[in-house]
Each structure stands twice: as structure tokens, then as C-alpha cells.
Amino acid sequence: MALADRVVARVSISTQTMEVHHEGRHLFSLSVSTAKCGKITPTGVCTPEYLSRNHRSKRYNNAPMPLAVFHDGN
């Protein structure tokens, strides 16, 4: 079983946090930003398509987006 198969990340839209677990053990929590006001963040299970440790936003004036996770083409 690959490491990624044993890692689970749960995002809470209401608290804007993400908890990461490995083999059922809590590793860490961090703050996240989901959809902006007036937009909807889809719920459910997804697989990340792209990870970026030091991403910069092309849309928002080169704003830093550390540890960015992108899915569904967004």
C-alpha cells in the first residue's frame, strides 16, 4: 500500500481548517481557504491533481498560497 493510500486529509468548510491523519493517527491541523464569498465549495471525496509547496496566485496579484492543493481543475 502506497503512503498516499494511508493519508487522509479532512477539510472543514465551516471552520476553514484541514486535519491530516496517517493510518488513523492525527498528524497536524492547519488553516485553509475554501471558496470566496458567494461561491460554493463542492463537498465529497476528491483526489488532488496538483500540489504546490510555494504557489503564487495568478488571479490575485501574485498572492502567496503556501502548500496549495488543487483538484477538479481549480
Class derived from helix and strand content = mainly beta
* Shape label: globular
User: What proportion strand?
Assistant: 35-45%
- The proportion of residues forming helix, as a percent range, comes to under 10%
- Total of domains: 2
Please give a quick description of this structure.
With 74 residues, the chain is mostly beta strands. The protein has strands at residues 7-12, 17-22, 25-31, 50-56, 64-70.
Topology:
Blueprint: E1 7-12, E2 17-22, E3 25-31, E4 50-56, E5 64-70
Antiparallel strand pairs: 1-2, 2-3, 4-5
Based on the model shown, name its key terms.
5 strands, mainly beta, two-stranded antiparallel sheet
Question: In words, what does this structure look like?
Answer:
This protein has 74 residues and is mostly beta strands. The protein folds into two domains: 1-43, no CATH class; 47-74, no CATH class. Helices cover 0% and strands 45% of the residues. The protein has strands at 7-12, 17-22, 25-31, 50-56, 64-70. It has a three-stranded antiparallel β-sheet, with no helix packed on it. Strands 4-5 form a two-stranded antiparallel ribbon. The protein is globular, with a radius of gyration of 13 Å. The termini are far apart.
